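Slide 14.
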Amino acid sequence: MASQLEQGLLYEAEAHYREAIAAYEAAALEEPGNPEPYVRKGTLLEEVGDFQNALVSFHEALRLNGQDAGVLSLRGDVLATLGRFEEAILDFSGAISIDPEDAGARYNRGLAFAATGQTDGAMRDFTEAIRLNPTHGGAYNNRGLLFYKLGDNPSALLDFSQAIRVRSGFACSYTHRGRVRERLGDASGAIADYTEALRISPTDATALYFRGSLYFASNETGLGRSDFTLLLKTAPQDHPLRALASQQMGGSV
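Slide 15: predicted structure.
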């Protein structure tokens, strides 16, 4: 007969999440010294958006084995999602101290540093994540954002280009590179990047707004109005670019 842990894995594979969680709870009682049921339960709770109970499960797993770098990173992810960035940084730092080669923990700590305005720490972590995993598109992309905010346009351009090279299908890197090209006066290059972003994500409000603005600036009013019309049709009502697009179209919605 399958153990409760094995039964939970079967339920989870079949997307019967409530039954899987119950099985993992039973498994924790069946195997009180085994952290895996808590890890599985916490991971599943995080996946379904129950972050507070996911934290409880990861706490229990770490109570049984506080030297599990993977679980520290999982708890750090949940803490970051909840906006508890300083606590997340502590967990990612713990994971890194156990496994210094963990590019994911470096990257996630970098995100937490960036979210709290600790630019130097974020820059170091993104750079180290790239050293450990040269195909880490997220690290290139987010380091590029830091360079962009610092006004280092050549470095930002290089990082966004690298992000595009190592991971296909991410519209945001094209949009970010378009912003750099626009800042550098390369309007045609910026439009090309926004267009590629929109090929991947046809209702990307940021790409629609900035491409539309460039079209208006180059007297291609029809194309600009087309972009803004789609933006106003698809962007959430509270999106900050809606008002700007409406203004450029003369106040029409």
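Speaker note: The mean pLDDT is 95.
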